[in-house]
Amino acid sequence: MGVIERYRDRIPVIGPNTPNLTLGEGSTPLVRARRLGETLGVELWFKFEGMNPTASFKDRGMVVAVAKALEAGVDGIICASTGNTAASAAAYGAAAGLTTVVLTPTGQIAAAKGAQARAVGARVLEVRGSFDEALQSCRELADRGVFALVNSVNPDRIEGQKTAAFEINEALGSVPHVLALPYGGGGNTVAYCKGFTEEGVKPRILQGEATARATTLATAIRIAEPAHQHEIDDLDAQGWLERVSLSDEEIAHAWHEIANNEGLFCEPSSAAGFAALKHAELEKGSTVVCVLTGHGLKDTSRVDAMAAPSRLVDADADSILAEAMRP
After folding, report:
1. Number of domains the chain is built from
2. 72, exposed or middle or buried, with CB in 10 Å at 0-12, 13-18, 19+?
3. Cα–Cα distance between 61 and 85 in angstroms, integer?
4. Are residues 118 and 91 in the same domain?
5. Cα distance between residue 288 and residue 42, in whole Å
6. How many whole angstroms separate alpha carbon 159 and alpha carbon 152?
7. How many whole angstroms from its chain centre is CA 47?
8. What is the distance of C-alpha 32 from the center of its chain?
9. Which runs of E-coded beta strand occur in 145-264?
10. Is residue 123 located within the same domain as residue 10?
């Protein structure tokens, strides 16, 4: 059961004529992180959004945005992307039978994400410019009525993404004391706040963002000018949010800890929420949920720089044992 069918009565934009489009998105696991939780002195859970169909949280909102575009009778959809939006838009566009155009900053998209978009037939165009410039071009083309824009500035995306907050509350049986997540464009934060508001609850929300936004190794949050900055500022003024600036070294270390201690392989940007927790004063024994926004297979090139290499051994038991036990 996908997001539209499961939450049809909680997504106002979904009507009787909205197609029940789905690739099986949503209902992602909430994984107890006992070892890291003990280190922080809290009950820690990871919401692993990398288990969505295209391996990132983007699918939750994309299914709603594309279904609404299909309902409106458009011929195509368009987005600007650092990778995950591209993969998601391409997949749902293909499932809906729509032409999908993806604009990416040249040389700034992880190879696996580009491959996902191209494999399902999207027209991937590398822009000589930044993500922000690519998004502006998308807005202009959408204003001309040529394509439906499916970036998170499309409110239908937020409606779909808010369902992750519903799932967390359902799985825990209560609201977490703290939610931590990466901060790139800000759309996911806005969506979680909307979802929790509709549930009548207000957890403390930590956002981990790269100090070097335009050049960070965490490509999924490599966005110099967040598209949802004004909404984030409003939520900040309402006391919803705490922002934590992180070095690439802190993000990489958090990624390594999650993988080595809990066996969860996420992409580097996903670790920004956990890295932010280390800067926060957490009440002992409190319930903390950390959102892992994308699967590690999204950006395997980072493994070479961030994890130990494989080792060459002779094909005999003694050599293998000696090498396996070597520090």
Report:
1. 2
2. exposed
3. 10
4. yes
5. 7
6. 10
7. 11
8. 19
9. 148-149, 178-182, 204-210, 241-246
10. no
At which of 127, 153, 179 does a domain end?
Answer: 153
Size (the chain), residues: 327
SS (H, E, C) 154-185: CHHHHHHHCHHHHHHHHHHCCCCCEEEEECCC
Q: How far is CA 162 from the centre of its chain?
A: 12
Residue pLDDT tens, the chain, 327 long: 899 999 999 999 999 999 999 999 999 999 999 999 999 999 999 999 999 999 999 999 999 999 999 999 999 999 999 889 999 999 999 999 999 999 998 888 889 999 999 999 999 999 998 888 999 999 999 999 889 999 999 999 999 999 999 999 999 999 999 999 999 999 999 999 999 999 999 999 999 999 999 889 888 898 888 989 999 999 999 999 999 999 999 999 999 999 999 999 999 999 999 999 999 999 999 999 999 999 999 988 888 877 888 889 999 999 899 988 987
Measured distance CA(165)–CA(195) in Å, rounded:
5
Give yes or no: residues 279 and 138 share one domain: no
Residue with tokens 């394509």: 147
What residues does 32 pair with on adjacent strands?
A: 45
Residue 318 lies in a domain: no
Q: Is the pTM of this model over 0.85?
A: yes
Specify whether the CB–CB gap between 3 and 25 falls below 8 A. yes
Owning domain of residue 272: 3-56+156-306
Residue 271 lies in a domain: yes
216 and 148 in a single domain? The answer is no
Asked if 68 and 208 sit in the same domain, the reply is no
Is 237 inside any structural domain?
yes
Q: Are residues 148 and 256 in the same domain?
A: no
Measured distance CA(270)–CA(81) in Å, rounded: 16
